[in-house]
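#structure-requests
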Amino acid sequence: MMNTNGTTVTGFLLMGFSDHRELQILHAFLFLVMYLIALVGNFIIITITTLDQHLQSPMYYFLKQLSLLDVSFVSVTVPQSINNSFTGNGYISYDQCMLQVFFFTSLACAEMAILTVMSYDRYAAICFPLHYELIMDPRKCKRAVVAVWVSGGISGILYTTATFSITFCRAKIIHQFFCDIPQLIKLSCSNDYLAVIGVVMFITIASLTCFISIAVSYVHIFCTVLRIPSAEGRSKVFSTCLPHLLVVSFFLSTGICAYLKPTSDSSTVLDLLLSIFYTVIPPTLNPVIYSLRNEALKKGIQKLVLGRKFIEKKKFLWCH
């Protein structure tokens, strides 16, 4: 039940992409396909970086954490949206919306943090190869990953607490396919959303710090790479750095555009496209981007696939 008075909030209505039933089914199907691709791609990365003994360096350890974050991140919003489109019902309860905001912001901030750690790892590996094992020893890597998840959780708590301290006094209609914070702020008719703005500014400063750290790391990396005499050596280094740089640029640019753009009173194609670009596309494309130019990952995937076929063939011959 929807209650729109100023004191009671029983739920929200997610408007999604369209009111037309055919388009809702099409949206659900496309999101389902992208969701399955994201799950399969990231679980392959997680599996091979766990089982393959040649993929146990810090770079692949952090890549595994990124895939775990991607699987979780895409699972926060997409399944709910698919269900809403299939059923034709965009209602989401207050508690569900709160949990969605918490996990969405926690995982987004954690993803920004792990991308920063990954850039530092590449910086240490390329600029200080002789000291790399000392700089990125297993204990420090585990501490870095713990810090990533903890910082994401703290950010999520701050965002959720500030957002749901707002008094929602307008119609509980959200012009998105998930509980988007800018859309939630628009439902307030008083100044009690200032706490959210304070949290946003704090997280923005933290994100800017991460971005500067990534930029500085890559300036040093490119300066070092350009001093490598052989073209083959430069190509090998770029094959591990360029995918990460592409992922960072795509994630940051789409997220910044979506959150700095003024929210509209009704859904627009640009709003929905931007939300897809920073919620669905990155987790779907990250495994592809990282494996395209990485020969070690390609070999790991081939071993995983061929190994399974080999086992099945042995079982078949044994049974006959």
